[in-house]
Amino acid sequence: MKSMAELVDGFRRRSGIDMYGRRKQAADGWNDIAGSRIGSHSRVIGFVRGELRISADHPAVAMEIRSCHDHLLAALNDAAGADVFDRIAVVRRRRPTSRRPTARS
Known about the structure:
The chain is 51% helix and 18% strand. It is of the alpha+beta class and 105 residues long.
């Protein structure tokens, strides 16, 4: 008969609870992992399965993240202590535009 600890450990592995915690821990460290130049112009918007989703302020930042993809991915997985991410998806953050009121005559 299995002990309670073995049952709980088995459940955590099968349910992915451990994986979620590791992914969240690595994602929370995005600014440190990406560095100040990239981190100050991007943010984590979420993660789904093995994909980390990043929002970038500017196309140049998105391009830099994409060009450093393998390095950033390795650093994220290293921070998590396991291979929890297999892809980084970058989206452009849309800034709200200010619209001028139209004059009505």
